[in-house]
Amino acid sequence: MEIRPETIHDHPAVARVNLRAFGGMGEPMLVALLRQRQSYDPDLSLVAEQDGNIVGHALFTRCTIRLMGEDVPAAYLAPIGVDPACQRQGVGTALMQEGHRIAAAKGCHVCFLLGHTSYYPRFGYHTGAFGAAEMNVAVSALAAPEAPLEARPPEEHDLSTLCAFCRSEHADVDFSLHPENTLFDWLSPDPRVYARVYVRDGAPVGYARYRRSAKTRVICFLAADAAAAQAMAVQLAEHAPEITLPMHPRSKSAPVFGLQGATLDAWDAGMACALQPGALDAYFAALSAGRVPGAVVWPPVFDPL
Ligand SMILES: CC(C)(COP(=O)(O)OP(=O)(O)OC[C@H]1O[C@@H](n2cnc3c(N)ncnc32)[C@H](O)[C@@H]1OP(=O)(O)O)[C@@H](O)C(=O)NCCC(=O)NCCS
After folding, report:
1. Which residues contact 129 (CB under 8 A, 6 or more apart)?
2. In sequence order, what are the beta bridge partners of 197?
3. Which of 43, 214, 230, 244 is in Cβ range 3.0-4.6 Å of 142 for a Cys bridge?
4. Atom 36, ligand 1: which residue's CA is nearest?
5. Is 231 touching ligand 1 by the criterion CB < 6 Å?
6. pLDDT of residue 129
7. Ligand 1 centre from 151 Cα, in Å?
8. Does the beta carbon of 89 lie inside 6 Å of ligand 1?
């Protein structure tokens, strides 16, 4: 068996392996979308080839995360799939080991994923590395805006402002991802998900992404200031008494909603592994000492899953 980077000629076989491994189109679509990212690196999209057939695939995507107040070069693994006829023969292990080796050689300090807790720890992953910040907020406590904010889809000229909102909102949130400066990170490929830029006096003051069918369960929420945060939440709630925001207690806007003292549970399935020795030591020591676990807001390519 050979583990090697994929080429464009492998794409149909990679789609077939992921379809067979996962039993649905979600992961083949995810791979196709992740290949469109600026950060896509074919060296980290690995195939396992046996007798001329692609029997496994793993896609590591490079990114930058915040960790303990610093920018850390990292990668996330999504997805990894082995043809069911070839599982339990070491294919997954070979893909993991080669992916880690290449990602480390390219300077990644950490790899993280959501996955089976009985599989990944053997490769050095710690369970409970991060969760999701999903906080309920009572809308009655919020100040209604004098006039509603204009809400419109993001446009190319908004991108640097939106990236700056994200960096500022999540500057102290562990495992928050720096979005890319392309519309791909601000528009959803899922037509059931709306992305909106909120505008006050002609200038963007926030961004939110939410499912059309569940406007009060927001996927991504970034606000420039307290007034914008309150106005956006009231607008998203419409007449609902409560709204669920992805608001980590260490987010800049958390105090606006009284959430700065809140905590959240890390998911067992939220796992991370150090690719450079010691890269996660301070973080896990801080978690043991009571630091609130980090949270990942996945890019819109993950919305359809
Ligand atoms: C998970 C997966 C990639 C592992 O690949 P693989 O080639 O079968 O794995 P390996 O042969 O290297 O390792 C086999 C070991 O993994 C374990 N394993 C396989 N699938 C597992 C799963 N879903 N959960 C937990 N352990 C699993 C086996 O029990 C075996 O353990 P053992 O060595 O203690 O007996 C593969 O089973 C797969 O494609 N599954 C379906 C898709 C999927 O779930 N992907 C991962 C999403 S998080």
Report:
1. 112, 175, 266, 270, 271, 272, 280, 283, 284, 293, 294
2. 152, 207
3. 230
4. 82
5. no
6. 98
7. 45
8. yes
- For residue 253, report the distance from its CA to the centre of ligand 1, in Å: 40
Domain 135-257 belongs to what architecture? Answer: 3-Layer(aba) Sandwich (3.40)
Q: Average pLDDT in the 35-48 region?
A: 97
How far apart are the C-alpha atoms of 205 and 197, rounded to whole Å?
8
Percent of the chain whose predicted confidence (pLDDT) is above 90? 96
Domain ranges of the chain: 2-131+265-299, 135-257
221 alpha carbon – ligand 1 mean position (Å): 35
22 touches ligand 1 (CB under 6 Å):
yes
Q: Does the structure show a pLDDT above 90 at 145? A: no
Calculate the alpha carbon distances from 120 to 14, 72, 111, 201, 204 in Å.
22, 21, 11, 49, 41
> What residues have CB less than 8 Å from 31, skipping those under 6 apart?
14, 15, 18, 45, 57, 59, 79
Q: Is the CB of 87 under 6 A from ligand 1?
A: yes
> What sign for the dihedral angle of Cα 156, 153, 253, 130?
negative
117 lines ligand 1 (CB under 6 A): no
Residue nearest to atom 46 of ligand 1 (CA): 80
Q: What is the pLDDT of residues 259-279, one digit of tens each?
A: 999 999 999 999 999 999 999
Q: Which residue has the tokens 């990114």?
A: 63
pLDDT digits (tens, 9 = 90+) for 237-246: 998 999 999 9
128 C-alpha vs ligand 1 centroid, how far in Å? 20
Are domains 2-131+265-299 and 135-257 of this chain identical in fold?
yes
The yes-or-no verdict on residue 8 having pLDDT over 90 is yes
**CB-ligand 1 contact for 96 (6 Å cutoff):** no
Give the pTM: 0.96
Q: Which fold does the domain 2-131+265-299 belong to in CATH?
A: Aminopeptidase (3.40.630)
pLDDT, tens only, 158-208: 999 999 999 999 999 999 999 999 999 999 999 999 999 999 999 999 999
